Amino acid sequence: MISHHKTSINPLYFRNGEETAPRFRMPDQGMLPENAYQMIHDELTLDGKPKLNLATFVTTSMESSADRLYAEAFNKNLIDKCEYQQTTSIEDRCLRMIADLWHSPRPLKTMGVSTTGSSEACMLGGLALKRRWQKERKKQGKPIDRPNIVFSSAVQIVWKKFANYWDVEPRYVNITPNRPCMDPEDVLAVIDENTIGVVSTFGVTYTGLYEPVETIAKALDELESSTGLDIPIHVDAASGGFIAPFLQPDLVWDFQLPRVKSINVSGHKYGLVYPGIGWIIWREAEDLPEDLIFHVSYLGGNIPTFALSFSRPSAQVLLQYYNFLRLGKAGYYEVQRASQSVAYFLKLTIQTIGPFEVLTDGSDIPVVTWRLKEGYTSNWNLYNLSDQLLTFGWQVPAYPLPPDMEDVTIMRVVVRNGFSMNLAHLFLKNLQQAVSFLDSLESPIPHDMSCDISIRH
Ligand SMILES: Cc1ncc(COP(=O)(O)O)c(C=O)c1O
């Protein structure tokens, strides 16, 4: 018998004395590389399949030449900027390209950095807002002990972390059934002289909707004219930053609005790169307070750095550049349009399946959400449906909406590159089968609260 404190090695592989390894303690001796590989490889077969993971926004496949490039670069540390000068130069080119895509007035001069993902980028954006506000207040001889930041109740968790970690009061603008996105009037109602900025989410994690950055900016312009309060906007475009420039090029949400001072995006979402890359760009160099930048001499040379992490893999940066070269604007358009077509197809079919009411249809970012029609059944709910879909391998999250709408549970599919029309057909077939099974139940499924896991990214 193997105790749960030990993991066993397949008899085909083990040598004497090596048939088990402790699970929670580092083994005293090592093992052959094949054995270590096989043990981990076998265990990972229990993970879900990335391709069927409809919960994540993050890229799960790239083409083989990208994989080759990844394998060539995984041993380079991005922070070794003097040692890997071409990698550094490529990172800089990516920054300029993104700044240009988002209409920075000076894409070749402005500041920006690559990050591990949008979470780090948002922290940096928030810090810059806080520092800018502190400087202004100090100049005016006013206290700086009570900063606040304004965002919607549907904000991604990183902003709640930001507020908590950096001692900034979060001020929520609650979304409601009638106002599913942050409303400019409600934004103005919570702003005061201690507000360091407004965060507008461009591609809300819960629903995929774009918040109305332009109208929020106009409302803040008017506030400035009437009160003198100059409140900057940070756009959290984790998903939308690589969708809108291609699918909604006429939408004004970026640095075309002078009030938008910084924008972040996840390169590993609709930037189409493997997990581990985000970007933040400031509108102009002056919008990033100079005293947040450190100059490091022990890397060789005098290297400016502004990031929470020091060492980081460089492969994802190279893959971002690969995608920019490989796809160009036309290619990004084609890829995102294909995802959006699949989203529309899902929406059209799902709304014809009896129990569902579609809430968002993928016309902003390609994300489709739906709820169970009120009063449809008391025998099952969307959590049960999520479990049923898992029996086919599909991972589709069900979760409650944020405060004021938390009694509404929704289900969400994120359509990403690789979720083809063919897979969508198969998914819809399995969805219908799952619904038929649940509809055939004669009494309610016993409810196990511990299973109400909500997967949000
Ligand atoms: C709006 C928004 N902001 C930030 C994040 C965090 O992004 P990352 O996973 O790249 O750190 C997400 C993730 O889904 C998001 O949707």
TrEMBL record:
CDD domains: DOPA_deC_like. One of its GO terms (molecular function) is aromatic-L-amino-acid decarboxylase activity. Keywords: Decarboxylase, Lyase, Pyridoxal phosphate. It comes from the Bacteria. It catalyses: L-glutamate + H(+) = 4-aminobutanoate + CO2. GO terms for cellular component: cytosol. Belongs to the group II decarboxylase family. This is Glutamate decarboxylase. The lineage of its organism: Bacteria, Bacillati, Bacillota, Bacilli, Bacillales.
